[in-house]
Structure formats: structure tokens, C-alpha cells
Amino acid sequence: MDFRFTEEQEKLRTEIDDFFLDNLPSDYRPRGQRGQTMEQYKFWMDLQRKAGAKGYLTPGWSKESGGLGLSDMEQGVVMEETSYWGAAWPGSQGIRVCGPPLHVFGTEEQKSKFLPGIAKGEDIWYQAFTEPDAGSDEANVSLRAVEDGDNYILNGQKTFITAPGQGDYLYTLARTQDVTPKHRGISLFLIDAHSPGVSYSALPTLGVFTVDIFFDNVKVPKDRLLGELNRGFYHAMVTFEFERSTTGGGAGARRGMEELIDFYRNEKPNGKPLLENPAVRDLLADRAIEMELVWLQGWFAAWHFSQRDKLGSPPPEAGGLHNKVVSADRAKQLIDAMGLYGQLRRGSKYCKYEGRAAGSWEVSRSTHPAGTIEVNKIVLGGRGLGLPRIPAKFNKEIRAAIEERG
Amino acid sequence: MDFNFTEEQEMLKTSARDFLEEECAEKLIRDVEAGDQGYSPDLWKKIAELGWLGLVFPEQYEGAGMNVIDLAVLYEEFGRAMFPGPYLSTVILGGMTILEAGTEEQKSEILPRIARGEQIVAMALTEPESSWGMQAWDPEGVTVAAVADGDDYIIDGIKLFVHDAVCADTFLVVARTKSGADPADGITLFLVDAKSAGISITPLRTVAGDMQCEVIFDKVKVSRQNIVGALNGGWAPLDKSMKVGAVMLCAQMLGAGEKLLELSVDYARTRIQFDMPIGINQYIQEHCVFLLRDVNGARWSTYLAAWKIAEGEPCDFEVAVAKAWGSDAHERACWRAHQVHGGVGYTVNDGVLPLYSRRGKTYQLYLGDTAYHKEKIAKELEGWPAPQVPRGKPLGLWEGIPENWIPEWWDTYDKG
Ligand SMILES: Cc1cc2nc3c(=O)[nH]c(=O)nc-3n(C[C@H](O)[C@H](O)[C@H](O)COP(=O)(O)OP(=O)(O)OC[C@H]3O[C@@H](n4cnc5c(N)ncnc54)[C@H](O)[C@@H]3O)c2cc1C
Questions:
Q1: Are residues A283 and A331 in the same domain?
Q2: In a domain? residue A1
Q3: How far is Cα B376 from Cα A282, in angstroms, rounded to an integer?
Q4: Distance separating alpha carbons of residues B152 and B46, to the nearest angstrom
Q5: A31 contacts in chain B (CB < 8 Å)
Q6: ipTM of predicted assembly, 2 dp
Q7: Which of A121, A198, A302, B278 could link A48 by a cystine bridge, Cβ 3.0 to 4.6 Å?
Q8: Helix crossing, B235-270 with B316-341: angle to 10°?
Q9: Is A177 in the same domain as A263?
């Protein structure tokens, strides 16, 4: 057992840290992507390209793909510092979600066409999975892809698609076959975001900005199929393993802690620093505990992932669920500890702490991205702990019986 | 970063599990609880033979020279097996304090005896007033005085919630020898023969059914020779072993939690109601999943704290995090396990679940509960530096800029 980083890893950490120290302005505030101004967005696009040129966006990818060919652990270090500085990469979905499976399932042509664009910070991807009737039940995808010569023709709709920037490509699940079970007829496509027939409308949420995407006879060449036909659902599952091995959570929380402590230290209603208030101390301690736990579980997952050849798949872990559960609690503590000021949004007169209490409280209303809290529990209980569940093939019968009873 | 256990640790784990499953079954635990010693002398002898009592002592004192991470591995198994006995009192709070601060004579006399299972030590710190709360484990709470009398000291006062007092040969008494601005300055540790005149012991009836006692020191005379560490300087070494103790309680709760998870998942799969296993219901699944969350969260916070101690690095924050989380998580884990087990989890005379639950409460309170350690964390956080300020020239892009729902880039995006 060893909780220390190697000398090389520490050097890498300093290098990344220096990159941000040099390139971020002294009046920088890590404030996420929600409703950015154009200047903020441009700033992040520029910095993303700078980071991309150095390979910092995708350090674990091969050099040909635009990465640095570093190990999973070193990649963890880079992600940790990136997240400490709250880098709001517009290309985050491609970097974290769409790129890694492309690495695994892509053909050589696909890899050389798409990966460098993500790695260099040029291209922005959306992960377009969810549909009006396919939320938690992702296998219920009905965006239809029909073979037509050298192309597929797509018709249907996606919804709630996180849009951290001006999208260039869509990483899309579509139905290619009607079968039971439903998930055996789904395929993954890599689609130009501005193909004729694709259109968008805004679907702003209390959290990140999302969009609806409509597909009207969209022509997608066959070489844009990722992996095997009708195996898209399985390929998409692999994505989660990559997502799980992230190390950013704890570090992002650390920066947040530093800022929060500083705020409570300097804010002195009636001449007494808020830092001495028992409710504030309780909140800070809770946050610190969770920060440590998230940091440890994140690194455990990354370490386990880095040894996947030797160790196989990781034991069931509840870090993700834990985050979802506590984030709402912490947001409530934060806003409640500000009294009436807590409700002020950023930019308002009298707003304290730049409206972050209200902001994070709003964000915490949802735990939906990457699976709801409930679905997390179902997956952990079933696949993780081996608890029984009603086989899906009975679902329709049960529904019919319920409807019959009225 | 390496989350692997060493081969030695894996071996210790397996052999401890096998041994304890055999020798420390439910019957023994119930017998000990019903008895008046608070431990099984027979089992104590056996674990001495296995070398466990000297595990963390150097070889020159008949120990095995292993470290605190190894000890945590053993403690996880203690927790799983609900091992009853004065290990924490004797080996950690007694032995490790002596190892840290004792004279060579004290070390070479007492440590081998502890390792052989021939001497049991009980640490007497908490008092009627301090037991109410936050100062129980801080020097502020120590008021029982030891007053110099020629070559001796006279200790007078009541110590409460003294674990394992009944079977102890020796008390490590934490007494005040000086009062001043710094409450830690003026604490002295005394080794007191349990048979000394003036000592009277009354076991307390606790939910755990363990042997916590009131120990009255009625003008008990103890020789100056029996001071461990410096006069007035006893707090630092004691604090150090209490930190080890706190982490071991975390490991113990972790081991118990792992077992509770196994028991609950197993019961959820096999107990049939409404013609189906109860585990098919999402309410029951939720209990199990949260058990997993609480147990998993405790694992690495415990081992990180143990590792910090083993490496001799500053560990106040990590220990407080481990115990603050571990205690509350264990309380929740026990409660969840009870819910899954229904009435079967609620019986007094058989079944291990209530035993885990009752004993768990003691682990949570001992050496600082969640509230206590959270305040320690808050103290640490007070000293955190302000966030780093980058070196680029200011751009005025963030401060005071209102936050909208829709980003401005959307205006120029080609929406098809
Ligand atoms: C801010 C935001 C960003 C998002 N970004 C993306 C994105 O980038 N790409 C993408 O593809 N999708 C994205 N999503 C969609 C997200 O993945 C879905 O919202 C999520 O999967 C839940 O689906 P749903 O909203 O349809 O809720 P539903 O599935 O309808 O669920 C409603 C409620 O029922 C519960 N429920 C459903 N099934 C069960 C069950 N079997 N047992 C118990 N409870 C159940 C759910 O947990 C939830 O509480 C985003 C969503 C949000 C809010």
C-alpha cells in the first residue's frame, strides 16, 4: 500500500499546474459552463486549444491520436490538476465520453479522422443517447437508422443532450433492428453535427445547457458506424468504465473548499467570521470528509483500471452513487448557511460568494446525467451485489396486468 | 499509488479469518458477555501464541515488528469476528504508549509481558464531567489530579468508561500534575498496579455488554518511577496511540460492516415473502446498496490514515476523517442491516446482528464520535491556505457577470 505519487508524477503535476497558473488570468473564477458569455466561451476554446497542443486534454491517448502516451495513473494526475483549476473544456464530452470508446472500437480510419480533433481541442462532440421515450430505459432508443446503399438514413429525436459548446459531431445511439431484447438492435454512429436534416433547439436546464436534436432523413455514410452493427449498446456500456476511472472529483472539490473557507474567513457579519459559526463548521467538515472519500475512491478506481489486465473488472463500488446522494445535501447546507442572501443569483446586487450557493443548489436539483440516483442503485444492487430482479421479459405482461386492473 | 495489500498482509488476513471463525464464534462472544471478565483468557493466550499481541512491537521486545497497516488488517478481522478482549487497551493505548515514551526499563519489562499475554493494561482517561461530550478525548477534560508526595504521587478522583478495568493488571492513568494556559502541558501518565490500595472498580451496564467501568482512585499512591514519558508531558505520546486506536476502531467497524453487508445481501436473496425473494424489492435493494456505500467509503479512509501513521507523516486530518466518517457510516450500516433482516435481526438470544449493532455503538463513541472528529476537521480547515491566484493578466471575465440559462454561443450556432 502506498498513497504517494512517484517523483515523475509530481513533476507532471507541477507542469500542469504551471500551465494553468501561466494561462489563467489573475481574476479567474472557476465557475462552470452554465450560460457562459461569448467572451468566457472564447476564452475556454482558446485555452482548450493551447492545452490540446501540449497533449494535456488526452494525456492517456497515443501520440498519433494527439495524446502523450502516458499511463492511466499519469493521466489521472493531469485530470486531477485540470479539475482543480475547474477547466470548463467545451470539448469535455469528446475528451471524456466519446473519445475513449472510439479508441477501443474505432477502425484505423475512424481513429485517425476523429481522435486528433478531440485531442487538439478543435472538435466538440455531443453524446446523443437520450430520447423522449428512452431515458433510464436507454435500450428503448427509437431514433431509426435504415440501411440505404452506402448510407444509413436516420429519423427521430434526441433530447437532454449536454451541449458544452458549439457541437461538431454527434456520438449517437440509433435503432438498426427491431428485436427482443431491445438492446440487441442498437448501433453507434459518428455523425457530422451539421449534416443536412439535423436541427437543434435549446432545452436549458437548472444544470448544464442541453439541446433537443431532430433527425429528418439524415444521411450517414456506413463508415460512420462505430464497432459492430447492433452491438452499440454493449459498446456504450464500455464508456462507463472509462468514466468511472476519473480522478477529478476530489481535486475539483479541493479548489471549491479552499474558496469556501476563504469566503467564510473573510465574511464577518457583526464582526465575527462566519468560519466560527457551528453550522458552517459542520458543513465544512462534511465537505472535507466527502472530498477525501471521493479522492480515494477516484484513485482506487483509476488504479484498478490501470491494472485491468491483472485485476479484471473492478469490485462494485458506490462512489458515483455517493456523490449523487451527498451533492444535494451539501448544496442545501451551503445555501441554508447564507440566510436570506443564499437565494441571490450571480450578478444580483448584494449577491454573496458570487451566487454560488444558489447556483450549486439549482444544479443539485438533478442527479440525472450518467444515470439517475435510482438507476445507480438498481445497477449496484443487481450487477454489483447480485440481488434478484424481475426479468425484463415479464415487464410487458406486468404492465398489461396493471392496465387490466385499471 | 498502490492499493495492494502485501503478501504478508494477505496471509495475516486469511489466517486471522480462519482462526477467528473457529475460535471466536457467536457462542464465545455470548459467553464473554455473560461472564464477569470481559474477555476469554483462553482465547487471549491463543492469540498471544499466534504472535498477535506483540504484532507491532519491535523484535527486541518479543514483538513481530509489523506496522500499523498490518495491525489494521488484523483489526478488520477482529471487527468481522466481533473479537472481545482488551487488545486496544493493552496493546495500543498501553503498549504503544509505553513503546513511544517509556524508559528502556519499562519497555523491556512490560512489552514482552504484554506480547506473551501475561499483562493486561487499561487506560484511564475519561471522567464524569468530560464524558458528556467534546472534551472527553482532549487534555481539557482531565481534572483528576496526581499530587507529589515525596518520591510518590497521590492520585485522587474518578475515571469513568474505563475499558477492560476488571481484567487489568495495570492502569495507565492520565492525571493532571499542573494547570496552566495550555491544557496539554500538565498531563502525566502513571502506571498503577491494579491491586493498589484505594482502587475500586464498578462495571457499567452498556449496550455493548462490554466491560467499561467506573474506577475510583481514592488517594492511590504511585511511585515517581512509574511515570511514563515526561512529567507534565504525557499528552503527546498518549494522543499518538489514541490516534492509532481510533484508526483501529475504524478498521474494526469496516470489518463488521463487510460482514453486515454479506449477511444482508444473503438474507435479501433467500428470504421469501409474497412468493419472491425480498431482495427483489427496491426498498430492500436500497438498504443493501447504501450498506455497500458506507462500507466502501470506510475502507480507504481507514487505510490512508493507517498508512500516514505508519509513514510517520502528519495524520490529524486523515485520522479525523476516517473516524468521523467511519462512526456514522457504521451506525447507518447497522441500521440498514436491521431493516433488511426484519424481526430476525431484532432478537436478543440468538443471531449475530444485534450483537454487531450493540457493540458497534461502543466503537462509534470510543476515542471520539463523529461530532468530535468533525470539529477536529474544522480546526484543520481553519489553517488551509487561500486558493492560489494565477499569474495571467486580469481579463474581467467572471467577477460580477450575471449567469444566464442559455450560453451566448447558442446565438451564432448553426441550428439547421
Ligand atoms: C442536465 C442534464 C444533462 C444531460 N446530458 C445528457 C447527455 O449529454 N446525453 C444524453 O444522452 N443524455 C443526457 N441527459 C439525459 C439523462 O441521461 C436522462 O435524464 C436520464 O437518463 C433519466 O432519464 P429521464 O429524464 O427520461 O427520466 P426517467 O427515466 O423517465 O425517470 C424518471 C424517474 O423514474 C425513475 N426510474 C426510471 N426507471 C426506474 C426503475 N426501473 N426503477 C426505479 N426508478 C426508476 C428515475 O430514476 C427517475 O427518478 C441529461 C439530463 C440532464 C438533466
A1: yes
A2: no
A3: 11
A4: 37
A5: 398, 403
A6: 0.94
A7: A121
A8: 30
A9: no
Distance B31 CA to ligand 1 centre (A): 53
Interval A355-392: pLDDT, tens: 888 988 998 888 777 788 888 899 899 989 999 999 98
Domain finish residue from A64, A90, A116: A90
Task: Determine the CATH number of domain B123-233.
Answer: 2.40.110.10
Q: Name the one residue in this structure whose C-alpha cell is 478488520.
A: B76
A320, three cell numbers: 458515483
* List of chain A residues whose C-beta atoms are within 8 Å of the C-beta of residue B416: 194, 197-200, 214
Rounded to a whole number of angstroms, the distance from the CA of A159 to the nearest CA of chain B is 14
Number of domains in chain A: 3
Section B69-80 average pLDDT: 98
Query: What are the angstrom distances between the C-alpha of B373 and each of A36, A186, B236, B246, B333?
Result: 40, 51, 18, 10, 19
Same domain, A341 and A382: yes
Residue type (1 letter), A250: G
Q: Please report the pLDDT score of residue B309 as a whole number.
A: 98
Q: Extract the C-alpha cell encoding A24.
A: 489563467
Judge if the beta carbon of residue A369 lies within 6 A of ligand 1. yes
CATH of the domain spanning B236-381, picked from 1.20.140.10, 3.30.70.260, 3.40.50.2300, 3.40.50.10540: 1.20.140.10
Are A248 and A388 in the same domain?
Answer: yes
Average pLDDT per 10 consecutive residues for chain A, totaling 406 residues: 96 97 93 86 97 96 94 92 92 92 94 97 97 94 97 98 97 96 95 98 94 98 97 85 68 85 93 94 94 90 88 80 82 88 91 89 82 88 93 91 92
In terms of phi and psi (left: phi > 0; alpha: psi -120 to 50; beta: otherwise), the region of A393 is: alpha
Q: Residue A236: its pLDDT value, please?
A: 86
Tell me how many residue pairs between chain A and chain B have CB atoms under 8 A apart: 242
What pairs with residue B272 in β-bridges? B277
A373 vs A96: CA distance, rounded Å: 21
Residues A359-391 as b/e (b if ≥16 CB within 10 A, e otherwise) read bbbbbbebbbeebebebbbbbbbeebbebbeee
Ligand 1: residue of A96, A130, A170, A387 to mutate (most ligand atoms within 8 A of CB) is A130
Contact across the interface for B292 and A380, Cβ inside 8 Å: yes
For domain B7-119, the question of CATH label 1.10.540.10 is answered with yes
The alpha carbon of A242 and the centre of ligand 1 are apart by a number of angstroms equal to 20
Q: For A43, which residue in chain B has the nearest alpha carbon?
A: B397
Cβ pair A35:B296 closer than 8 A? no
CA-CA distance, B250 to B366, in Å (whole number)? 10
Q: Whose CA is nearest to atom 17 of ligand 1?
A: A369
**B340 CB within 8 Å of a chain A CB:** no
- pTM greater than the 0.90 cutoff: yes
**CB contact at 8 A, B8 and B70:** yes
- Tell me how far CA of residue A42 lies from CA of A47, B277, B304, in angstroms: 9, 56, 41
Q: Are A259 and A385 in the same domain?
A: yes
In chain B, residues with a C-beta closer than 8 Å to the C-beta of A301 are: none
Note whether A308 contacts B: Cβ–Cβ < 8 A. Answer: no
B-chain CB neighbours of A384 within 8 Å are 289, 292
Instruction: Tell me: do A309 and A213 sit in the same domain.
Output: no
- In this complex, is the C-beta atom of A289 within 8 Å of any C-beta atom belonging to chain B? yes
Alpha-carbon gap, residue A311 to A304, rounded angstroms? 7
- The CB of A127 under 6 Å from ligand 1? The reply is yes
Largest pairwise CA distance in chain A: 76
Range of the domain at A342: 244-392
Q: Which atom of ligand 1 is nearest to the CA of A378?
A: 42
Considering only the beta carbons, identify the residue of B377, B380, B398 that sits closest to A28: B398
Q: Does a structural domain hold residue A140?
A: yes
CA distance A195 to A178: 25
Contact yes or no for B69/B9 (Cβ under 8 A): yes
The residue assigned the cell 499512591 is B221
What nine digits make up the cell of A183?
Answer: 438492446
